[in-house]
Amino acid sequence: MRAALVVHPASGLGRAGRIADAVATRLRGAVDDLAVIRVGSVEESRSLMARARDSGLDLVVVVGGDGSVHQGVQFCAEHDVALAVVPAGTGNDLARTLGAPTDPLAAADALVADLAADRRTRIDLGRVEGGGPAASRWFAGVLCAGFDSAVNERANRMRWPSGPRRYDLAILAELARLRAGRLSLVEDGGRTEVEATQVAVGNIPHYGGGIPICPTADPTDGLFDITLVGRASRLDLVRMLPGLRSGRHVDNPVVTTSRAREVRLGEANGWVAYADGERIGPLPVQVSCVPGALTIVGRVVSG
């Protein structure tokens, strides 16, 4: 087996870079050949993985967070290469769905055991079209638009403060200017026009570091779970927050849930779509669930 260990050293405030050598040491006994690839940008990641592919590659192991994994998903889905994840970022939502231990070295040990037992699973991926020039791409987790994406947009523009406080301030700022948007939602051909605050299209349950926004989503069932927050006031959102970590937000009267294989989020209403925490671009976007599009080492334990 030929494997590439792709390390994004800055992930998790430098955690990925600090543990990369220890992860590599563990993996070398489980594969025949291991190339360690340290990348500092999306473009570099794609280029180096393409070169590794040309030498014959069976497995990509990503050490990093969901943004790093998102880049690995693009490569592995396009080239039918298996993917494994050693969580070392801040969110680690796909790793959570795959049951990886939260400690990255424990996760590396679990990966070695999975490789020895040849445990592999085919999971679904989302395919998104639209959103701007970087249009067609894969995602493994959750695509969202509306309030939470507006928070991301604002936080990404801010230069101060750093860390989680930046997002706290962005949330407060977006709450102050909260307003619903007109959203055209097409699910498997059925069209709905709604006033909405946000929408999430989930291939897996979690986003944002463990928030089960689509609590029953299963990446092996060939369908998305859709969570739609209708017209909501600031008070509605504040009341919803305590239930987010437990998934009880879906019981709120302003929230509706559904399931579909094809979803179109229509209208250029000013909303921006994010998937796996990465910016896709402004609506409209078309999203398709592609069953069994990716091989992962291990098994799905939540969904």
UniProtKB/TrEMBL annotation:
Domain of life where this protein originates: Bacteria
Keyword Kinase: yes
Pfam families, per database record: DAGK_cat, YegS_C
Cofactor names: Mg(2+)
Keyword vocabulary terms for this entry: ATP-binding, Kinase, Lipid biosynthesis, Lipid metabolism, Nucleotide-binding, Phospholipid biosynthesis, Phospholipid metabolism, Transferase
Similarity field: Belongs to the diacylglycerol/lipid kinase family.
DAGKc domain location: 1-132
PANTHER family, A to Z: LIPID KINASE YEGS (PTHR12358:SF106), SPHINGOSINE KINASE (PTHR12358)
Species in which this protein is naturally found: Actinophytocola xanthii
BP GO annotations: phospholipid biosynthetic process
GO molecular function: ATP binding; ATP-dependent diacylglycerol kinase activity
GO cellular component term, pick one: plasma membrane
Protein name per Swiss-Prot or TrEMBL: Sphingosine kinase
Keyword Lipid biosynthesis: yes
